[in-house]
Design a protein that fits this description.
The structure holds two protein chains of two kinds. Chain A is an all-alpha fold. Chain A is 70% helix and 0% strand. Chain A has one domain (88-354). Chain B has a three-stranded antiparallel β-sheet, with no helix packed on it. A two-stranded antiparallel ribbon of chain B has the order 1-5. Chain B is built from three helices and seven strands. Chain B has helices at residues 2-29, 71-75, 114-118; strands at residues 53-55, 63-64, 81-89, 95-105, 125-127, 141-143, 150-151. The chains are: A mainly alpha, B alpha+beta.
């Protein structure tokens, strides 16, 4: 059966037999780096195309259908265009910060990728505080956005960046509380432990209504954190032209664009890991035949399938709901999501203590 | 009462959001609803009164109905039409004014239809073509009467 685990193991034993451990480790680091960068490139191409197709079908259009079979090379052509474009730096901009910001944003998304298990025993680093690490590092991305908005020396950029700051700081709270309810149920911050605890059923099925509520809150909060519609006030093209990346062009703009889509992938994979069992196949109670068939699907396929389902849901939000005003946005967080998720966390704790979950 | 309003707010909001998602989800799964027409392959039938460009219809004997009266040139608001006239000699030895060249500047035309309305002999009309883009601007300056054409007999 196909599994990524055997490939990585054979590569590791080969490297360790051929070179001394230090050089083997170095080689592994290089391989991981190359893999991460290629994953970024592929994700950028696939997700942008998916977004354009999904949005087209939801708006009764056809979407890109000229470049390549069924429009599948459209994003490749767009990327080529962005590569050959000039990366302009405005005269009044703070040159150093202006050029640093896109790299900061993309590096932060790369860092968050570290503890994510893509398949069974296939993850870069199994940190024992994985959940904490993810929520800590992902909230640093607001610094990159603020930096871009401030350094552009443009009022639209600054407004967008400030809104983004207010938004991410607020929604980080309810996203954190929603994640905490799973941590309470599992009793561990390690992502591999959290997946292992869903061996007999995903938390969204096992955890009754509180987990479903925290799943909904998580999805809303991460939509806001990744600055996507209906919470895309940071770039609100009808109000702020493009918000924090108004002044960027060429590859520097492409990095922001890529970071947005990679961030969606990351938050969706976190959602899939916490609520939908990560790479765990779907098992239903005592249906042994059904469970056995499900085991034959490779764990990487399960993971990618769940992540893309969540990404589709977030795209669905984007192409259905209108953009919120900034006061409505903060009302939603501080008056609705935060109190509900606090109460929900209490309920989850009660369920865990009494052992009411399956 | 505050709590009741709060809960009903949340409930109604969720309900209306789900209603919206059901609509877009319906469109996403029903590709038959797509209203896009793929232009170069599928060309929409244009209405009869669509105004694409000014043309001068010629009959099978290569004859047109233009007397060279310049009514269209005078009617044109932005000097799109320039009529160059000549003098024909009729069989009984009289000189008669006739059309030499009908110059039409498509790049200046606003398709206002005033020239067609001004024409006393219905010599020009609006065509339904609309793909006018060319690589050279000079190709937009057109000569409407065909070479060797002459005025139809009986048109005054």
């Amino acid at each position: 059966m196909f599994s990524l685990e055997s490939i990585t193991n054979s590569i590791q034993t080969w490297l360790n037999n051929t070179f001394n451990p230090t050089i083997a480790l170095l080689f592994e680091c290089v391989i991981v780096g190359v893999l991460v960068i290629s994953l970024f490139a592929v994700l950028g191409l696939v997700l942008v195309l998916m977004e354009r197709k999904v949005s087209a079908y939801m708006q009764i259009r056809l979407g890109p259908n000229r470049v390549g079979p069924g429009g599948s090379l459209q994003t490749v052509a767009d990327t080529l265009k962005l590569v050959v474009k000039e990366g302009l730096t405005p005269d009044g901009a703070d040159k150093f910060l202006f050029n640093l910001a896109p790299f900061l944003v993309i590096i932060i998304s790369m860092l968050v990728l570290a503890p994510i298990p893509f398949a069974k025993n296939f993850q870069i680093l199994d940190i024992n505080i994985g959940v904490l690490y993810v929520s800590a590092v992902s909230s640093v991305s607001v610094i990159g956005i603020l930096m871009a908005g401030w350094a552009s020396n443009n009022k639209y950029s600054l407004l967008g960046a400030m809104r983004s700051g207010a938004q991410i700081v607020s929604y980080e709270l309810s996203a954190g509380l929603a994640v905490l309810s799973i941590v309470v149920l599992t009793g561990s911050l390690q992502l591999s432990d959290i997946i292992a605890s869903q061996q007999n059923g995903w938390w969204i099925f096992k955890g009754h209504i509180p987990v479903i509520i925290s799943f909904v809150i998580f999805i809303i909060a991460v939509t806001a954190e990744t600055n996507r519609a209906p919470f895309d006030l940071a770039e609100a093209e009808s109000e702020l032209t493009a918000g924090f990346h108004t002044e960027y062009s060429g590859m520097k703009f492409a990095l922001f664009f890529l970071a947005e889509y990679v961030n969606i992938f990351i938050v969706c994979s976190i959602g899939a890991i916490l609520f939908l069992g990560g790479w765990m196949p779907l098992h239903i109670g005592n249906w042994n035949g059904f469970n056995h068939v499900m085991d034959y699907i490779p764990s990487s396929v399960w993971f990618i399938g769940k992540v893309f389902f969540l990404i589709f849901v977030i795209m669905w939000f984007r192409w259905t709901f209108p953009r919120l005003r900034i006061d409505q946005l903060l009302n939603l967080e501080w008056k609705y999501l935060l109190p509900i998720s606090m109460l929900n966390l209490l309920l989850t704790t009660l369920i865990t203590i009494m052992g009411w979950h399956f | 009462m505050f709590l009741k309003d709060y809960i009903s707010d949340v409930f109604n909001a969720t309900k209306s959001l789900l209603k919206g998602m059901r609509r877009t989800g319906y469109y996403f799964t029903h590709h038959k609803e797509i209203i896009t027409q793929q232009y170069p392959e599928v060309k929409q039938a244009l209405p009869e009164r669509f105004r694409g460009e000014v043309v001068m219809p010629h009959d099978e004997n290569n004859e047109h109905a233009c007397t060279g009266c310049t009514a269209c040139e005078l009617a044109c608001p932005n000097a799109t039409i320039k009529i160059i006239t000549k003098f024909d000699v009729t069989p009984d030895g009289k000189k008669k004014k006739a059309l030499d060249t009908f110059v039409y500047h498509l790049e200046l035309c606003t398709m206002c239809n005033l020239c067609v309305q001004a024409c006393p002999t219905d010599a020009i009309k609006m065509a339904q073509t609309f793909e006018h883009s060319v690589y050279d601007r000079s190709r937009l300056t057109k000569k409407l009467n065909e070479p060797g054409s002459k005025i139809r007999a009986g048109v005054e």
